[in-house]
Amino acid sequence: MIKTVHTAPYQDQKPGTSGLRKKVPVFAQENYAENFIQSIFDSLEGFEGKTLVIGGDGRYYNREVIQKAIKMAAAAGFGKVMVGKGGILSTPAASNIIRKYHAFGGIILSASHNPGGPTEDFGIKYNIGNGGPAPEKITDAIFTRSKVIDTYKIADVADVDLDALGSFKVAGMQVEVIDPVADYADLMEQLFDFPAIRALIASGVHVAMDSMGAVTGPYAKEIFEERLGAPEGSVRNFTPLPDFGGHHPDPNLVHAKDLYDDVMSKDGPHFGAASDGDGDRNMIVGKGMFVTPSDSLAIIAANATVAPGYAKGIAGIARSMPTSAAADRVAEKLGIGMYETPTGWKFFGNLMDAGKVTVCGEESFGTGSDHVREKDGLWAILFWLNIMAARNEGVAEIVRKHWAEYGRNYYSRHDYEEVNTEAANNLMAALREKLATLPGKTFGSLKVSAADDFAYHDPIDGSVSKNQGIRILFEGGSRIVLRLSGTGTSGATIRVYVERYEPDPAKHGIDTQEALADLIAIADEISELKKRTGRDKPSVIT
Ligand code: VG1
Ligand code: CO
Predict the structure, then answer these.
(1) Choosing from 112, 234, 275, 294, which is the catalytic residue?
(2) Which of 330, 371, 417, 473 lies at a 20 to 30 A Cα distance from 29?
(3) pLDDT of 286-334, one tens digit each?
(4) 345 CB less than 6 Å from ligand 1?
(5) What is the number of other CB atoms lying within 10 angstroms of the CB of residue 416?
(6) Nearest to 125 by CA among 241, 243, 278, 5
(7) Does the beta carbon of 90 lie inside 6 Å of ligand 1?
(8) CB atoms < 10 A from the CB of 407, how many?
């Protein structure tokens, strides 16, 4: 019943910031997905008889690859596969299932916020037994294996029925089709004060949650409309669609603009939230106030004890390097540890496992905690509602008071997408060459205090990750960061992150792009971005 198939290796299966992401036609090449899945199994040890969790964000090609993964897990010797009904598991829910049921690991099928469909994006990622993304040591081993693989094993059996809950055997391996939502919703109910949030909603606070045609729909329906009593219709675009309705399921001011405009309108909702393709990102908007993800991390950390799951306080905070330093000020005030890691959730796992940090965040609309080992969109949204209920204040009031107390970190990210790869690499190389000459130089009123290519020394396992982004730091706390995306699937994406710290509350009402205009111009001057890429403006500003 177990078949050994001869295959030829592909040379391009290098996992990026969050797993392997390619266009569907690339994944649909002969044995492409199989090669990668077998390379994952070949890079692991000691899983015989153990449990593997499998699920995805429901995008195009999800079901096909889930069938392959189940049959290959059986052939590899796993004892059991737990798979979400319909092949659905949000990324944070998958992380929770791995932890709760002590699985060996999990395979998550997602390309997150990227569009889905026959010519759009797909992705495969492996998570380890702590529920978090595999560390670089494992992803490097997978890539090395994928370049030489010549056979894979698969059970030669019919497709399994993913659409009914239940348990059955596939080539001697147990398969359990589970409810994707229940365990996750229970976890949220333990962490947050549901009666208080329920009362907030019952008092007339109008909440709008946009699932963007992606995986959080069923989760949000259960949590907001069933458990928290929000009126039907509070959750929008709640049916996970293989092509997300043709949209980018990316919760930001560009792709979730309808929701933003609705919240900003006179009679619109008081609180708006959205999440991405696989449910790990979040966007928070209140009347007259968009909350930057960097501020959201700081505000959640500063108010954490209002939520029952965090009543004892938080051990520490971690943020990715490009994320603003707003959370650093909170950590300082609380007298707890603050850690700066490279981009991508895989770097937070060790810190959480060691009990050094409780709350983590990235500027890219990602916030989470040690309740799982992934960022978690609905978790962040519920945290905001819990804070609003506890403080009896709206989003704008909470944010303004936070700035008044800690100062405001004006922050923005400019993305230049699908840039010519060679031009992008040359730009970064030229910038690296310049780094040593920058300190002491003055640009307008700003003086460079330091410039480097960020390297991370993991304090727990001692591993070193180099070339994680160029940092140009100015006296007074302003900063420019440039790095190349590790999740794109065509050409290169250059990300430019700019930040300016403003302690004076009288100057907290300036438009963000205006407040950062000088830094944006300096970033272009130093990197020669416009000249080298031929672009005169970013593709996306967040
Ligand atoms: C982007 C974000 C990063 C995030 C990653 C995965 O990576 O910048 O912060 O962790 O996406 O998020 P990059 O390398 O393109 O900048 V998700 O929601 O796409 O899994
Ligand atoms: Co995501």
Answers:
(1) 112
(2) 417
(3) 999 999 999 999 999 999 999 999 999 999 999 999 999 999 999 999 9
(4) yes
(5) 23
(6) 278
(7) no
(8) 18
CA of 436 to the centre of ligand 1 (A): 29
What is the Cα–Cα distance from 13 to 27, expressed in whole angstroms? Answer: 10
Chain centre to alpha carbon of residue 385: 20
| Residue range 482-518, pLDDT digits in tens | 999 988 778 899 999 999 999 999 999 999 999 999 9
Q: Would you state the pLDDT for residue 91?
A: 98
User: CA gyration radius for the chain?
Assistant: 23
Our answer on whether the CB atom of 71 is closer than 6 Å to any ligand 1 atom is: no
183-406 folds as Alpha-D-Glucose-1,6-Bisphosphate; Chain A, domain 3 (3.40.120)
CATH fit for domain 408-541, picks 3.30.70.20, 2.60.120.200, 3.40.710.10, 3.30.310.50? 3.30.310.50
**112: annotated active-site residue:** yes
Q: Is the pTM of this model over 0.85?
A: yes
Q: How far, in Å, is the centroid of ligand 1 from the Cα of 264?
A: 27
DSSP classification of residue 513: H
Rounded to whole angstroms, what are the CA distances from 217 to 171, 244, 249, 405, 510? 33, 11, 12, 36, 35
Ligand closest in space to the Cα of 18 = 1
CA of residue 89 relative to chain centroid, distance: 15
What is the 337 CA–ligand 1 centroid distance (Å)? Answer: 24
Instruction: Assess whether the C-beta atom of 21 lies below 6 angstroms from ligand 1.
Output: no
